[in-house]
Write a structure and sequence with these properties.
31% helix; five-stranded mixed barrel; OB fold (Dihydrolipoamide Acetyltransferase, E2P); 234 residues; alpha+beta; single chain; disordered C terminus; globular
Length: 234
């Protein structure tokens, strides 16, 4: 009997010592809410437990814009909004905040969980965090802004998976997913390796991602060029 008790205690200690287990502070950051309206692929409106209405911007992801001048981009924006509406509207969710809680528009910045997580293991993130699901299904690309970067590494991995599988917005860009270009912290153009404009900062990304982020081609180093093509949602 003592041996069984001892083994049980070891198992419990192992569970509580898991690197993915929620701390008390992380548990407090989970706020129950109900999605009452979907504004676009990455923005929703909720009712909190206290009855307050609050707009929520999903952290770490960016969907194509509904107002983009390119009709093919708008098509994907409407598809992303429809996907979010189908999975979230009217649903009870749990909002997890990061280091920064509000953006300049007064929107709550949050990770949206479709079930309260017992831990933050990658499998749980993949299955139950809607921000991650948007990336995995190819309806969004990563959009990291300091200081809200808790899941930055895993989000980049999920986006890479979607790109390599050609899901969603990446489906017609297979010719560009293996081409690496570079951008800077503040610039609006993408560059080839060795460009003089990369002296102060250089952030690698695929040419496909540079396309979706609307970067323009550097006319100094003349990196590989992409040509916008009509995008099919099928």
């Amino acid at each position: 009997m003592r041996r069984r008790t001892f083994v049980a205690m070891i198992v419990l200690i192992g569970l509580f010592a898991s690197p993915y287990a929620l701390s008390a502070e992380e548990q407090q950051r989970l706020m129950p809410a109900t999605i009452i309206r979907v504004l676009d692929g990455d923005t929703v409106e909720v009712i909190l437990e206290n009855g307050a209405r609050q707009r929520v911007r999903l952290i770490g992801v960016d969907c194509p814009e509904l107002t983009d001048k390119d009709p093919s981009v708008r098509d994907y924006a409407f598809a992303a909004a429809a996907f979010t509406r189908e999975l979230l509207e009217g649903r009870r969710v749990w909002l997890e905040t990061d280091m920064g809680t509000l953006d300049k528009y007064g929107r709550l910045l949050a990770y949206v969980w479709t079930a309260p997580p017992a831990d933050f293991a990658e499998e749980k993130i993949r299955d139950c965090m809607f921000n991650a699901i948007l990336l995995l299904e190819g309806y969004a690309y990563t959009y990291m802004l300091m200081p809200n970067t808790k899941y930055a590494e895993v989000f980049v991995g999920f986006q890479h998976e979607a790109i390599m599988e050609g899901r969603g917005i990446w489906g017609t860009m297979t010719r560009w997913i293996h081409i690496i270009v570079y951008v800077t912290n503040t610039g609006k153009k993408y560059h080839g390796d060795g460009c003089r404009y990369l002296a102060s900062s250089r952030i690698p990304m695929t040419l496909a991602e540079a396309m979706w982020r609307r970067y323009e081609r550097c006319q100094t180093c003349k990196p590989p060029y992409w040509i916008s093509a009509e995008i099919s949602l099928e």
